[in-house]
Amino acid sequence: MLSIENLNVTAKNGEKILKDFSLTVEPSQVCAIMGPNGCGKSTFANVIAGHPDYDCTGRMDYQGQSLLEMEPHMRAALGIFVAFQSPVSIPGVNNLFFMKTIVNAKRKREGLDSLDASDFLDLVAEKSKMVGLDRSFWDRSLNDDFSGGERKRNDILQMLLLEPKLMILDETDSGLDIDSMKLVSNAVNSLKKKGNSIIVITHYQRLLDYIKPDVVKVMQAGNIKASGKMELVKRLEKEGYNWLSQSS
Amino acid sequence: MNEQKVIDDAVSNQYQHGFVTNISQEKLAPGLDESVIHWISKKKKEPEFVLEFRLKAYRYWLGLEMPNWAALNIEPIDFQSISYYAAVNNQPKYESLDDVDPELLKTYERLGIPLYEQKKLAGVAVDAIFDSVSVATTYKDVLAKSGVIFCSFSEACQLHPELVKRYLGKVVPYQDNYFAALNSAVFSDGSFVYIPKGVRCPMELSTYFRINAANTGQFERTLIIAEKESYVSYLEGCTAPMRDENQLHAAVVELYAHENAEIKYSTVQNWYPGDENGKGGIYNFVTKRGKCAENFAKISWTQVETGSAITWKYPSVVLMGDNSVGEFYSVAVTKHHQQADTGSKMFHIGKNTKSCIVSKGISADKSKNSYRGKVHVRSLATGSRSFTQCDSLLIGPNAVANTFPYIDCEQADAKIEHEATTSKIDDLQMLYCNQRGLRPKEALPMIVNGFCKDVFDQLPMEFAAEIQQLLEISLENSIG
To answer: What is the pTM of this model?
Structure first.
């Protein structure tokens, strides 16, 4: 599904963030990425989205197509969704209107008619419930004056509406209380359909207890330093990241 | 990178209202002297006092020089090469729509302005001005039942001379400025509105202005009078054909609000902006002012300016009455080589007067967009408050935005706030929308619409969709 080889990513200020980064995510696979602050996890998510502030070399293929030269909206059109660590607010743009626009843009790409108002509202009502956002969020400006947790849930709501094939969740659990985390995990799990892959970037075991990863990768200093399964997560919870540098 | 591509992509899109109507017209030969003014006045069968007003203004104008303080590059205007009157042949005023040249009605249909009542937007009365004369005013009868007068300015001069005499030039005297003096001398047509005491005007009033003839100036004059405890909401829309030469539009709008009256005046200005090389387009040099003459009066201006080669205007409010309120909400979009120097003036004279200015300037491409505003609190205006917020949004690396706020305060008790921001289209907002599958050309108008929301919220409901569409088209024209 996603195949990355020797990806090197440099920020505008010249700082090298990812160094010879390689990662393969299979169809239907759930891959967890962990690692200390500043190791390049979020950069990785941003690079997949197509953030304009990075220079990238190397190879990053999705379903056999090279992503690096592709515009962000083209990547999204292929079914890639990034739930950002800090979703931006867009003042004045109505949240419900935004959802309707992205849903109908997707339907248009697929050759379907736009949803009419009542079908759309039914759909949003159903999906909003899954992430615990009530109607009062619909009429607000997109992410404007939302708390951190509300923004995260709003991103997951958009993800539920778009039903992407490759999902990257960048610290979606931070800022969520336990109940919200359960809701969000269940919502994410509902998208675990045949063939769909998920990359979960997180600091904590808790989210991974709900969204059970098939593989766990640990990053440090711009590269993947360890691979394993849930035992690896348990070791990190216990011992932290120090052993990584000792062992390498 | 995306953004630049978007900008380049759609520069080729064209102005939608740029067609010319082939219609038999009566047009005065170019040139301006006293005989021209006599001719116009006679043509319009005006009472003597109007002619006198025109001549006084003309003589005053002769002694003036064109001002040059604005942040604008204006090609010299040859006032002798302009024709000061153009009208559709036959009679200048029609008894009913059946008399109107079908070609003319087609023009308005192409512009999306339905004149036939059954086709009209629910509850909007329309006055249509084609070059120098009013073509048709709809819903007159319905309005007359509540005592509202809504007619062309020329008609008002003939039928309601006492009202015209009492108010003409009382808010914008002909000595006010260069273009106000010129307008006062040669004004063609415009709308006249009178709302009697205690009447809430039963529908939105609307005027559409269309410049058609070549080498013609349009000098409309609009006067709105709201008697005690009355209310009116009025909207004007403007378009013009594409022509290589610049055309001058120098209007004067006067609003007069008595005690407890409220006037809401909205403008959707989409004159031809010139081509992508800056050739042609309308010079939109307009004087708009309202007077809250008595206590608790309220005047609010809302403008959406997307057209014109140069926009140069400052809709203002004189807050004479105690507790009167003045508001100004503006969205000005410039692209290609368009220039705008626009903003508002608020004069606080009465006690406890309030003013609010919200200005959103959006400049794309090589255009230049300046906010210029003045808040003047006079010494007797105790307890007055004023709030200004002007936000500029730049699209592309070559666009320019300026802010020139002037504050003049003679009353220590007054509270004056001013906030200003300048930003570029936010890369992260763009990325966010793109990541959700929206193309840059879909995302941009959405983000800009959000940026303008505070102002759009002030427009009459009936026109909300129209405005969104206009913004989308005009952004498409220039950026994507």
So the answer is: 0.80
